[in-house]
Amino acid sequence: MINLAILISGRGSNMDAILSAVKSGSIKNVNPALVISDKAGAEGLKIASEKYGVPVRIVPSNGAKGWEYDQRIVSLLSEQDITPQNGLVCLAGFMRIISPEFVRLYRMHMLNIHPSLLPSFPGLHAQRQAIEYGVKVSGCTVHFVDEGVDSGPIIIQRSVPVMEGDTEESLSARILEQEHIIYPEAVRLFAEGRLQVKGRVVSIHHLA
Ligand code: GRF
Asked: Is 184 close to ligand 1, i.e. is its CB under 6 Å away?
């Protein structure tokens, strides 16, 4: 059984998609153990506790940065037995840079979703960057977290067209629909032990 933690800062729609897939049984072998937010007002907290009965914790930064902040998260994870061996940490709109210490501890046990086809448009406002650049196709990426920003080994990507007249909002909504498909799918593949990583290339081991 994989003990799952989801880290959020806001709306929590990707968290909702993952928890819904666990609840429906399409993701098996995963225990949703904890949702953590750095923002007390994150809408996702209510969804986690009221809709799914998952324990939630708020860890405000109060100015703490890097490992000083992250070690508070790590101690909550270990209290809930979400370890670097049996755990999976999913970043789902968690608006903080993860320190190298935290990354190293949970290496290949930490996933993130980003609203662009990486390595294009890492960082903030990926959808706005895509529109301003003038690309005709964008999308989303689920990847393992490494020490860089949105730079870890890519697990799944989905593309969407960028239409003439798209706004940041309309493109974000089109991408978000695909995020809700690929993030649960990546968690399922992880939980089934089907992700193999060589260098930065992830291959999906198909079941016979
Ligand atoms: C998503 O667009 C995700 O790709 C990005 O932040 C947004 C979070 O949305 N990292 P939500 O909180 O999951 O609704």
From this structure: no
Three-state secondary structure call for residue 58: strand
Predicted TM-score of the model (pTM): 0.97
Cα(105)–Cα(83) distance, rounded to whole angstroms? 9
What is the CA angle 63-123-118, rounded to 5?
Answer: 145
Q: What architecture is domain 2-204?
A: 3-Layer(aba) Sandwich (3.40)
Residue pLDDT, tens place only, 71-95: 999 999 999 999 999 999 999 999 9
**DSSP state at residue 165:** T
Is any atom of ligand 1 closer than 6 Å to the C-beta of 116? no
Domain ranges in the chain are: 2-204
- Report how far ligand 1's centroid is from the alpha carbon of 167 (Å): 17
Residue 139: CB within 6 Å of ligand 1?
Answer: no
Instruction: Specify which residues 83 forms β-bridges with.
Output: none
SS3 state at 167: coil
**Given the CA of residue 11, which atom of ligand 1 is nearest to it?**
12
